[in-house]
Amino acid sequence: MPVRDSDPSDGAACSMPDRRGFLKRTSLLMAGARAAAVLPLAVETSRAAATGGQTPIADTTNGKVRGENVDGIKVFKGIPYGGDTSGKNRFMPPTKPKKWTGVRDALSWGHVAPQSFLAGSIDYVRLIDGLNLPGGQSEDCLVLNVWTPALKDGGKRPVLVSFHGGGFVIWASSHPLYNGHPLAKFGNVVVVTINHRLGCFGYLHLGDLDAEFSKSGVAGMMDCVAALEWVRDNIENFGGDPGNVMIFGCSGGGSKVSNLLAMPSAKGLFHRAAIQSSGSALRSMPRDTAGKNAERMLAQIGLTKARVRELQTVPVEMMIAAQALLGAQSPPVGFGPVVDGEVLPRNPFDPTAPDISADVPIIVSTTMQEAALSRTDFDLDDAGLVAQVKALGVSDPDRIISAYRRAYPSLNPFKLLCTMITDRGYRKNAIMLSERKAALHKAPAYMYVFAWESPAYGGKFGAVHGMDVPLVFHSVWGITGPEAHALADKLAGAWVAFAKTGNPNHPGIPEWPAYTAEARATMVFDTKCRVENDPGKELRDLWPQGS
Fold first, then answer.
1. What predicted TM-score, i.e. pTM, was given to this entire model?
2. Among 68, 236, 317, 370, the one annotated catalytic
């Protein structure tokens, strides 16, 4: 029911939800505590002028920007590619940023999209310091960052555009995991990372309640397209080639790439793509499900359907708290791109690969133990393994466990379980996506599995979800040892080769054939890289379709 005004004698519904009443009514508890930990929103970060030496200045369609020279690379942070998305622009398609006169400093990270953790999710703070990100939260978050070896020199360097992970609800490009400096220097390429709307601000489908919000369920993906349009219009001034753009991302970033491959508005804005870890999105959110989620969001805030436009005036912290609370309910409310029939006219890779991007070569990957990131039962014993496999709904857990032990005799019960869960879900989706892409018989797909077990966190996780991300950036952030440096050369080398030619082969790795349904050639990135045809076939067959 609608939240009442704080004055009980008034007797009428207030013109907007009462903040204190909302907080008291929902109690917030853990979800609100998480939201409050990063709210109120940070104020605009000061952008002090660069001092000492000649600073790089680049032209953009909105005005000049000043960056800084860092070890041979020119770095520009927080460049706006879209306008403020607050107020009347909330839930609406992105607008162009306002032009400016003079030179704008691009020396500090731009704002992070408003976000909070979902109650009950793994403690990402402990693992990756997920919300302690520079820039502060604000709806004015449509910004991007550029690393380049040179400006406007006619170099026509490949452009690599990274979409950050975190599903569609958390994280930002300012995390050190996405530092583009080492990759730009290693490969003589231009690297771009972006922020965009997340969660309810980017994917709350209100179009079935009010036609004015017809694109609200895909606003975050429209931001991604706007960023790619900025690249097309400006990247030549940063030494890049707008005709040779590679998009890539891990996890939620890979899902963004999967969706972009099916979006007509993105066609021609990129020319290669890579989908890492659990990012192989075959399907996106159905419109009817998204509509029901929107109704639950309104009810959580305390608004009727007739008052949907008032959502544009609800304070950000109330929206984020409601989102977190809905994520903890059963069934949980999730947020992601909606198959609206126009901006996203179809599922990304179901029932087939999209024809609209048939000419775009792709890389598809998983790690061996994707599922390990969401678990902490490292001391799982044999009895616990049997119980967990039974919980997966299989009728003969002993047969499956025996098969995995034969294939991976050195893995403990925890890593065996995580490998199983990865195979039956994440890896199956990656294989199906690659098969469907290859079936178009146009541009190739290349498949890899990342099998190197990082020593991070005492080696407990194995080859955990996202472990290949820093290596793609030619970085060993969070990883130590000479093996990591060697793998960074191999994986980043494949990224640079693919960005340049659409083929990831380079002298540092064995010959890597394109993926076909017949051979299923797969590169295994490990201490010693190798190519295997249909690796783990006997294990893959243990998990029937729909398991």
1. 0.90
2. 370
d(CA 491, CA 468): 8
The token pair that represents 26 in the structure block: 């929902």
CB 385 within 8 A of CB 417: yes
Amino acid identity at 507: P
Sign of CA dihedral 287, 291, 292, 297: positive
pLDDT tens per residue across span 159-218? 999 999 999 999 999 999 999 999 999 999 999 999 999 999 999 999 999 999 999 999
Summarize pLDDT for 118-127 with one digit per residue, the tens.
444 444 434 4
Neighbours of 358 (CB within 10 A): 13
Q: In angstroms, rounded to a whole number, what is the distance separating the alpha carbons of residues 444 and 269?
A: 19
Report residue 473 as tokens. 């950036």
Cα 159 to the chain's mean position, in Å? 18
Is the CB of residue 26 less than 8 Å from the CB of residue 325?
yes
Q: CA–CA separation, 44 vs 62, rounded Å?
A: 20
At residue 478, the pLDDT reads 75
Residue 499 and residue 160: Cα distance in Å, rounded?
Answer: 7
Active site residue 370: yes
CA 70/CA 400 separation, integer angstroms? 52
* Sequence letter at residue 445: A
Overall residue count recorded for the chain in this entry:
547
Selection from 151, 173, 149, 169 nearest residue 161 by Cα: 173
Residue type at 2 in one-letter notation:
P
The residue with tokens 């018989």 is 441
Cα 502 to Cα 446: distance, rounded to the nearest angstrom: 10
Q: Are 213 and 290 in contact (CB under 8 A)?
A: no
Catalytic residue among 164, 465, 474, 506: 465
Annotated catalytic, 342? no
Q: Which amino acid is at 185?
A: K
Which domains does the chain show, CATH number per domain? Answer: 19-229+278-327 (3.40.50.1820), 361-540 (3.40.50.1820)
Q: How far is CA 286 from the centre of its chain?
A: 20
- Dist CA 321 CA 301 (whole Å): 9
The catalytically annotated residue of 162, 216, 251, 255 is 251
Nearest 5°: phi and psi at 289?
-60, -45
- CA torsion angle 193 491 452 386 (round to 10): 60
Q: What six digits make up the tokens of 439?
A: 């079936």
3-state secondary structure of 211: helix
417-459 pLDDT per residue, tens? 999 999 999 999 999 999 999 999 999 999 999 999 978 778 8
